[in-house]
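User: Design a sequence. Structure:
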């Protein structure tokens, strides 16, 4: 039985109504929900209690997975998805969440406990105090204020005695304790203080290897650990063992198809069931999807077939439509940053916008032109989201509007120089209290600014040494490229 026009319209409606705002915090109103969990096999290591460092760009799921670990119900779903990790025997407390509140440790706590003139030992004492606080809460001690724990953390003998006692109490309960640190980009707004706190936290994490029942997990942005000025001697070992949160093309399509399979829109669910049945496939249930036993979660061939049904096989029409590329590959390729990474936010954003674009066709749910429109919408969203982490990004991209890529570096640097970009962003960072792209010392140049963009995947060099920018940023930044999707108007 082939899907009808009504079936395609129902599926299109379900795609268009996927929640557009999918950002998460580790705690609070925007915390992860059980029904939102889609667990790629590659993310098992990120939840593994024995893996202390997880690295992920904005939108890859750091705070989402931190929130999953931090709640009993979502942790149970993760335990079902990754049974070998033993998450059903793990309790979780937070060491840092970036949010200021009576039960949270955010930048207010950092500033209160570590004065501006504070040094490395005081910074380490602060992080040790967060460990003591979290472990104390886990065993039933309800002292949530930092001051008493700072006092114990500042004396190494008192700290070790207290930690030994806490670990013994955790062991007696037959459990393990994982202390999670999220939103670590919010711990400081200037380079020296961020480096001080980062080095101190990494040193504490390294020393926590001495404990078997109390472990820590740190969720970092890549640029934080790529800071060449970090001097912690064991950093190379921690970076080598770090887990990187990445989403493959198969993972992203599996996520979208799972949203359709589990939609509460009964008309859309039935329509998707008919479409899959036409391919000899079945609608996946929650258990099958969460354990990756549904073919559409892992089989590229099946995923390609379903995408061809939903959007047509190619991005062009007619006998030579294949030259424009396959719809299945096009979205992933054009949403990738310079590290060839695609975030689930961008991918879902493209699909949602594609399903809202134009007049609904009768023989598919979305169109090639809708997918191109979706790239424009996803690009704007990605730059807006990047701006939350790097408030200087829009001011740096604006002077490049209209530039034809790929381009010689001198033309890129000249655009910044003509606009006075570097001095303007440094003044703005100082006035508004955010971290600039490089330390405010010396005389930064266009090359320094390019390297800052390269480090976060916004710019790259071609083999001929010309500068280029991935479409996911280029389109919103209004740069041009021959034969490519036109920028936003």
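Assistant: Done.
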């Amino acid at each position: 039985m082939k899907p009808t026009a009504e079936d395609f319209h129902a599926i299109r409606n379900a795609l268009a109504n996927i929640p557009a705002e999918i950002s998460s915090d580790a705690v609070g109103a925007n915390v992860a929900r059980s029904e939102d969990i889609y667990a790629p096999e590659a993310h098992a290591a990120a939840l593994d209690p024995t893996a202390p460092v997880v690295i992920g760009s904005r939108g890859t799921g750091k705070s989402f997975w931190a929130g999953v670990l931090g709640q009993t119900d979502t942790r149970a779903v993760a335990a079902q998805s990754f049974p070998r990790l033993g998450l059903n025997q793990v309790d979780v407390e937070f060491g840092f969440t970036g949010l200021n509140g009576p039960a949270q440790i955010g930048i207010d706590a950092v500033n209160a406990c570590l004065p501006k003139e504070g040094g490395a030992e005081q910074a380490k004492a602060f992080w040790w105090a967060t460990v003591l606080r979290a472990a104390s809460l886990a065993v039933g001690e309800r002292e949530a204020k930092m001051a008493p724990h700072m006092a114990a953390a500042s004396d190494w003998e008192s700290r070790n005695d207290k930690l030994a006692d806490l670990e013994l109490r955790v062991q007696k309960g037959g459990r393990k304790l994982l202390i999670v640190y999220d939103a670590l980009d919010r711990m400081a707004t200037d380079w020296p203080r961020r480096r001080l706190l980062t080095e101190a936290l990494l040193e504490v994490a390294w020393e926590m290897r001495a404990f078997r029942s109390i472990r820590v997990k740190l969720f970092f942005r890549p640029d934080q650990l790529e800071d060449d000025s970090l001097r912690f001697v064991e950093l190379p070992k921690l970076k080598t063992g770090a887990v990187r949160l990445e989403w493959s093309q198969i993972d992203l399509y599996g996520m979208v198809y799972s949203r359709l399979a589990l939609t509460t829109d009964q008309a859309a669910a039935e329509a998707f069931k008919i479409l899959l049945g036409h391919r000899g496939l079945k609608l996946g249930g929650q258990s099958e999807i969460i354990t990756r036993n549904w073919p559409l979660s892992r089989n590229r061939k099946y995923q390609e077939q379903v995408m061809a049904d939903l959007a047509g096989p190619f991005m062009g029409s007619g006998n030579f439509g294949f030259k424009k590329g396959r719809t299945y590959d096009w979205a992933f390729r054009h949403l990738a940053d310079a590290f060839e990474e695609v975030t689930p936010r961008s991918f879902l954003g493209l699909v949602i916008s594609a399903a809202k674009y134009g007049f609904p066709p009768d023989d598919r749910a979305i169109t090639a032109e809708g997918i191109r429109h979706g790239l424009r919408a996803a690009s704007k969203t990605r730059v807006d989201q990047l701006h939350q982490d790097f408030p200087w990004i829009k001011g740096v991209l604006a002077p490049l509007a209209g530039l034809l890529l790929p381009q010689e570096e001198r033309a890129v640097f000249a655009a910044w120089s003509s606009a006075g970009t570097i001095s303007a962003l440094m003044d703005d960072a100082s006035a508004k209290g955010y971290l600039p792209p490089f330390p405010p010392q010396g005389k930064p140049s266009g090359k320094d600014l390019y390297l800052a963009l390269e480090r976060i995947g916004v710019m790259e060099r071609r083999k001929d040494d010309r500068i280029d920018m991935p479409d996911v940023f280029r389109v919103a930044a209004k740069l041009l490229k021959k034969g490519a999707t036109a920028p936003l108007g």
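The chain has three domains: 5-14+248-386, 41-244, 390-481. Residues 41-244 form a domain with the Rossmann fold fold (CATH 3.40.50).
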